[in-house]
Design a protein that fits this description.
Length: 230
């Protein structure tokens, strides 16, 4: 029995951990939905507040109407008394007495509606302020989450592509070497062309008898014989 209890406890613990993991993975989405739900509740509260305020205004109009009736009947009572008709004055006074309880009830109703409306207004304002703060916090949380995801992606990509980076570096060096070899060959060809141009020019000058004189064995021998004869 103890073993079964431990297994059941382990299963519950695993379910709790899985539930927490799901909540953590969807925490921003959950917060957004909670804010939307709160906005719906505020909208409903405003509708209720509108209804209460309407009933308060109705009660206030009824109070004004009853007060007007009482004022009129009080005037009639005074007229009856001035005419010495005590019986009629009493009858009118009874009418006033029948209206006053309704007036008292309407005044209590108006006070109740007014107090309830005030509480609702305060609650709506407080909730809207809190909701505004939650919205601001949600924006900050979403921005932070986006930055963290981008940072994580960059880090993961860099780690996973180290070998690719090395391969890319080697490829880049091979390309640079090939380009240097091409430049060297081009420069060598230019030098060779220049040398060939100089040799051709020297041959043309020599054929025309222009340029520095070169000594030969015959010219040297002729020079020596000339000195001996002298």
């Amino acid at each position: 029995m103890s073993l079964l209890k431990k297994i059941f406890t382990a299963v519950r613990g695993g379910a709790r951990e899985a539930g927490e993991a799901i909540v953590d993975a969807n925490s921003i989405r959950i917060l957004e939905q909670e804010i939307k739900d709160a906005e719906g509740h505020i909208a409903k509260a405003k509708q209720d507040l509108t209804s209460v305020m309407a009933k308060e205004m109705q009660a206030n109009r009824e109070i004004e109407s009853l007060k007007k009736q009482i004022g009129e009947y009080e005037g009639y009572t005074m007229d009856a008394l001035n005419k010495g008709d005590e019986a009629l004055a009493t009858e009118i006074a009874e009418k006033i007495a029948s209206i006053e309880p309704e007036l008292a009830m309407q005044e209590e109703t108006k006070i109740s509606f007014s107090a309830h409306a005030d509480r609702l207004r305060d609650l709506v304002k407080k909730t809207e302020r809190q909701l505004g703060e939650y919205k601001r916090q949600l924006t900050m949380v979403k921005t932070t989450d986006s930055v963290q995801k981008a940072t994580s992606a960059i880090s993961d990509n860099f780690t996973n592509s180290n070998s690719k980076m090395m391969s890319a570096t080697e490829s880049l060096e091979r390309i640079k070497k090939k380009q240097r070899d091409f430049d060297d060959k081009l420069k060598a060809a230019e030098i060779l062309d220049s040398e060939n141009a100089d040799t051709s020019l020297d041959a043309k000058m020599k054929q025309a008898g222009i340029g520095p004189k070169t000594s030969s064995a015959n010219s040297v021998l002729d020079r020596i014989k000339a000195k001996k004869g002298a």
